[in-house]
Amino acid sequence: MAKLTDPITILKGVGPTKAKQFNQLNIRTLEDLICHFPRGYEDRTRIVTIEKLQPDEPACFKAMVMSAPRTSHIRKGLDVTKVQVADYTARLTLTFFNQKFTTDKLQYGKEYIFYGTVSGDFIGYNMTSPVFEELDSEPILTRRVLPIYPLTAGLSNASVLKAVRQALAICDPPAEVLPASVRSAFGILPAERAYYAIHEPASMEEAALAKKRLIFEEFFVFSAGLALMRAARSGKAVIPYKNLDLSAFYSALPFTLTGAQSRAIDEIAKDFGSGKPMNRLVQGDVGSGKTMVAAAAAYLAVKNNQQAALMAPTEILAEQHYQSLNKLLTPLGVRTCLLTGSLTPKQKKDTRQAIADGQVDLIIGTHALVSDSTQFQNLGLVVADEQHRFGVGQRAALLGKGKDPHVLVMSATPIPRTLALLMYGDLEVSILDELPPGRQQTDTFLVDESYRARINAFIRKQVAENHQCFVVCPAVEENGDLDLKAATVWAETLQQTVFPDLRVALLHGQMKGSEKEAVMGAFARQEADVLVATTVIEVGVDVPNATLMVIEDADRFGLSQLHQLRGRVGRGDAKSFCILTSRTKNAQTLARMKALCKTTDGFEIAEEDLKLRGPGDFFGSRQSGLPVFRAASLSCDLQTLKQAQQASAQWIETEGSGVTPEAEAMRRRIGELFLRAQDTVN
Fold first, then answer.
1. Fewer CB near the terminus (10 Å): N or C of the chain?
2. How far apart are CA 310 and CA 297, in angstroms?
3. Is the pLDDT of residue 162 over 70?
4. Which CATH architecture has domain 46-143?
């Protein structure tokens, strides 16, 4: 027997080329393959007569070949094979394109089982490229419930199915982790049966039961993992903060905080005084004032003789935080410093020495904060800005530099309550649902290509008024298979043809980190008028002078991503605008984007986006903290989620610390799940 950890290359027919295709789906081992679950099924068990076939409804039917297949060479690269089949109710013409093998496979006078879709009316029915099998053959493509798998270029459904069947034949599926009491209470299939049935269901009902089992298992494992994390953290004790007076901080502010900011700060102060390590998320829309909440937390930590560290995802954002917080907190006696990768070796050495000696109180930086050479004297508070941009390992490394430091994570990505429940289930949540007074609302418009001249004229108008513009494209380079605006080509077109007299810059994710930082820095310093970019600007660019965001092929983005991009403008005093361009004619897609034009409520948009796109695409790509679910869907399986959370809580209380094989297997599975989440971003 093979092991789950064995590579897929031990399977017949999976050589280096096929293995690379599987790798594109993150399938490298037999376990990865067995856990590559179908996205749906086609019920091919029911066989009808030709007379009962309905246009646009695929079905199985038994028929006899009534004529020898004939192949015609139409032109280079196109051969057409036609054959007539019949049963006792009617005749049917079958047409195959570039499938000359059917000439040998379909024999005159022999019966086969076909599966396909007819077109035309009953007088002139025909069918294009049906699949077929001999009557006495093993049901592989017909007479069965056929799983339909997520695929990638070059990998067919049949290839995946063939590989999965081999894997299940030579190794045992993943071990049982759900307690028998839980399976009995919720009607859950045993693991072995479920893993076979998800790939080889005898009926649609069995497929549904297998899916329910695997969804429940994923939610149970993740919920149990979060519960163990909460239990471990709640069991720790730290010295409560005594000095929680914020009057000096409030007096130093040039503005009045919103009610939501004040509530969040009060919640943080309560955590600081509890004697338990804080683990809190501050979640708010772009411009809701999260930085000031973090500043208050840092001020309290420093006043209690602790160091605070704020980690930002980009150097530009770290520098912006440093400039604003240094100006605010230095008069209050808080010593701040900046630690980023672009500092000179001597600057880094001196800054790290100051941090280790306790000569600075608030350290603001990027990933340089987590390097081995960065040591803190007394780290009491860790703040992670745009936390979903950091890997699990990076956050853990920073936490390890202090003794159970308080943790404050901030996210400007409005997250549906359902998703937040799983992403941040081990955190308390403070929501900033108010915008500070004077914050500009960005007007949003949806247009098609007929408005191109007007868009260009509006860009010119904004630049003439000494403002700057973003132009976001969905692709970096042109792709013959996808008709999408490419940033590289569009930037060149704008600079050479449309705006030869303006300064057009280019920014995309394939550039080196130093190049990206240089371009973003130059744009922030107003050294460019128009920045053509991909979604790399979604987070970490604060340019108050930018007043226009043009998003090309906007239908290619999720609503939440569009909302995040829109948040890059409207950050200054001037009126700002967002223009969505789209060439789609799909009514549902257009309605979705029009909804964005009507609201600026990020949480409302996020709820709608979760329904439409699901959690896998919620951030545009997999991000840390988001569980790598293989079967579950947060938008569809809420009832199962609630059941699994209830069951896992009871398991933690009664069996979680046990030494039974199931308990040990569960703890291993929890570790694997969190490791997968880390691997997707590191």
1. N
2. 11
3. yes
4. Beta Barrel (2.40)
